[in-house]
Request: fold
Amino acid sequence: MRQFVLVMVACFLLIAVPATAQTDLGKGQDFSNSGSTPEVFGGPDGFGYRFIDSSEPNGPAFSFVDISGTGTAMGLTDDGEGDAVIGFAFNFYGNPYTDARIGNNGGIFLGTPGVGNIFALNACPLPDAQGGTTAPRISVFWDDVDSDTGDVFFETQTACAHPDCAGQCFVVQWDNRPHFSNVGSGTFEAILCDSGDLIFQYLDLDYGNPAFDFGATASVGIEDEAQDATFVLQYSCNTASLSNNFAVRFTEATVPVELQTFSVD
Reply:
């Protein structure tokens, strides 16, 4: 038997993400663009961001930071948004931000308070330009999220509880939120590290309906297309590619892939 060893010191997968402009289709309507299945690592985008998920040995640890008992409850209604102060300057696509606009539909805008509407229907593929909103955007789990149960919380931690996020972090948690119209419930979060990394964590995405479970109608990614059309990195859209107890990290750092060994007879 001949042994072959493939050594990958740093391997990167370039993902081409076409730009598209969409309008809000309205609640409960189907957005018919076909989904895209993610790789476990990918990028870089035009700025240099890459992603890696927790299924990779060098991926982020899944370590859910539950702030439902300590964070600020936003009391967001269906399709609602609210503003929060991050607590430090978070660097995103080369610019520092101290304010976040958080939407019940699973997304965060950075920049000017009060600016940005996260519509009920996601754009697939990213980037989005719905309603002309092009502010820097973090799509943690952009979907038609309802508000019958649970709440959305935020919290700044001076010593971040996540093991891959040393220093300060800003945590936003969508806790026990159903899919529209009051279908099941899901819990997920975004962690913005003061290093500039972003960690998305998915505790429970089983809504009890395969049409919505695990990201089947959601978009996940980051973007700042107003600054540059190439500044967009999509992890997935409209595919059930996420899972419970799962994490994705977006970073400007290199994304190493472990040594791999395979045999050929």
